[in-house]
Every structure is written in C-alpha cells, then in structure tokens.
C-alpha cells in the first residue's frame, strides 16, 4: 500500500511513539479527529506498514540489565554463508539488541544489554563459538546520554 503521510498522520505517529497505550478518544482529541476517524487513521497506518508493532519499553536497570556493550567486529569472510551464520547467531542470542553491517574500517556493530562484565563474557564466549571473526573488540557504555525509540517526524 502506497500511502502519503499528511500532517495529521505525522502528529498521530509522533504521539503514538511517545505512548502507544493512549486511547483513540484521547489521541483523536489531541489531533482534532473523532474517535472513529482516529481509529481508521491508525488502522491505515498499520496496514501501510508505518506502524510495525506496539511494545512496552522496560527499564533495563529494573530487570538487572544495566550494562550496554557495543561490539566492533571485523571479519575476513564476506560470503553469504558467513553472513547467514552471523545473522542467525545475532537473532538467536536475546542479549543482542541490534546488529548492523557497517561501511568503513568496521564490518559489524552489535549492541548488547547484559547484567555485568561477567555476563558479557558469557555472551562473548557463546558468540565466538558460533561465528568465526577476525577481530572483536568491546566498548562498555559508561553513561547513557540519550536513548530513544522516537523517530523525528
């Protein structure tokens, strides 16, 4: 479905990014639509793929996952078999929150959430057993200055 976003759609998306639990009544009131008209807009945004899913954001410290680690990975293998193996490993390990193929000196950047350095080491051992890498270095986040899921619309 090819849908163009108008200003109301953008306002709806901005508001839903901040709180996806808002009722259609409240959302409609904030964007100047009736509840039903708002519901139809949200449904159309979902069907067009603008809204991928609705989630709850959990405080990582509250669930004992206070350490963010970025892995910088270099590989000397760039074939589809290696990439499939690496992609599967990153999908299968729940502590891996994001994995990105990069340009420049770095081949892959991986974002991890774990309890502590010992938990990171366990994850690292699990990953290197599954995937051969030329080099893997880690940086531990000392302070989180900004973390958001909101896209600038």
From TrEMBL:
Transmembrane segment boundaries: none
Question: Is the keyword Transcription in the record?
Answer: yes
Transcription as a keyword of this entry, yes or no, is: yes
Q: Which CDD domains does the UniProt record give?
A: HTH_ARSR
- GO MF term list: sequence-specific DNA binding
Q: Which InterPro entries match?
A: ArsR-like_HTH (IPR011991), AsnC-type_HTH_dom (IPR000485), Dimeric_a/b-barrel (IPR011008), Tscrpt_reg_AsnC-like (IPR019888), Tscrpt_reg_AsnC/Lrp_C (IPR019887), Tscrpt_reg_HTH_AsnC-type_CS (IPR019885), WH-like_DNA-bd_sf (IPR036388), WH_DNA-bd_sf (IPR036390)
HTH asnC-type domain residues = 5-66
Q: Which UniProt keywords apply?
A: DNA-binding, Transcription, Transcription regulation
Could you tell me which Pfam families the record lists for this protein? AsnC_trans_reg, HTH_24
Q: Name one GO biological process term.
A: regulation of DNA-templated transcription
Q: Which domain of life is it from?
A: Bacteria
Example GO CC term: the record gives: cytosol
Q: What is the designated name of this protein?
A: Lrp/AsnC family transcriptional regulator
What species was this sequence derived from?
Pontivivens nitratireducens
